[in-house]
Design goal:
Sc_DH/Rdtase_CS, 7-stranded parallel beta sheet, 7 strands, globular, alpha/beta, Rossmann fold
Length: 288
């Protein structure tokens, strides 16, 4: 048997074959910062061609340039804007494989159900829920036309969607609605080999959570402070809090072919907080 000669071309071929999203095309809404930007960078590192859609033009353009992608201004509450983002991906690469519908906002809409400011609730729904609907709708259209290759649609939800008391009422409602929408869309789109899933973080030190902490009086909170607080209070993994990169890696898994038999699933990135109560861990310790 002839020995195989190692060449630069062979090395490059091996490198590309190990990239989990090699030559896949992705659109990420809310990709200018936070979870979206971390996912955009990770997707690109794994071979994807990424379109970042956001309203933060300067940040979005900078991230897109750094990963060899494209940026488009996109207010997800406007269906035409989301459709334009999808069309940019199609005109650039001719197909769409991944949609990460990540754009979202928090309150404040009022702490009590008795004093909810309904205009702000409607604004939350226009971005968090309707923006997600727009993303699924237009990504699915593009994927269905893509010669039955299927695709992966991922929606950013929240642990607040399944556990009360983690967020204000309006935000909680929008995220719970996303979970239902994902399950419903997965039923229809499975026929086209399109998978639809959620990622649901809890306590990730994103800009949104930092802003919420500051609204509730934690004026000097830092990302490390949030991480330590979650690690000590709301994680079964003692002392370990979530990072933005933890969520990005969850999105990468659902975007890749490694999750090819997973759909209608809500992947929680919460250190077990919504599944079990770490305060009961004393039961498993040997008595002193």
């Amino acid at each position: 048997m002839e020995p195989q000669h190692v060449t630069d071309q062979n090395i490059e071929t091996q490198k590309s074959s190990t990239k989990r999203l090699a030559d896949k095309v992705a659109v990420i809404t809310g990709g200018a910062r936070g979870i979206g930007a971390a996912a955009a960078k990770l997707f690109a590192e794994n071979g994807a061609h990424v379109v970042i859609a956001d309203v933060l033009d300067e940040l979005g353009t900078t991230v897109a340039k750094s990963i060899g992608g494209h940026y488009i201004h996109c207010d997800v509450s406007k269906e035409d804007d989301v459709e334009s983002a999808i069309n940019l991906a199609l005109s650039w690469k001719g197909h769409l494989d991944i949609m990460l519908s990540n754009a979202g906002i928090g309150g404040p809409e009022g702490r009590s159900i008795t004093t909810l400011e309904m205009d702000r609730v409607r604004h939350l729904f226009s971005i968090n829920l309707y923006g997600t609907i727009h993303g699924i709708k237009h990504a699915a259209r593009a994927m269905i036309k893509g010669n039955n290759k299927g695709g992966s649609i991922i929606c950013t939800s929240s642990a607040a969607s399944i556990m009360g008391g983690l967020a204000l009422h309006g935000y909680t409602m929008t995220k719970a609605a996303i979970d239902g929408l994902v399950r419903s869309a997965a039923c229809e789109l499975g026929e086209h080999l399109i998978r639809v899933n959620c990622i649901s973080p809890h306590g990730v030190p994103s800009e949104m959570l930092l802003s919420a902490c500051r609204r509730f009086g934690h004026d000097d909170i830092t990302p490390q402070g949030v991480k330590e607080m979650i690690g000590s209070r709301a994680s079964l993994l003692k002392g370990k809090g979530a990072t933005i990169e933890d969520v990005a890696h969850a999105a990468l898994f659902l975007a890749s072919d490694e999750s090819g038999f997973i759909t209608a699933h809500n992947l929680l990135i919460d250190g077990g907080h919504t599944s079990a109560d770490s305060r009961m861990s004393y039961m498993y310790q040997d008595p002193k």
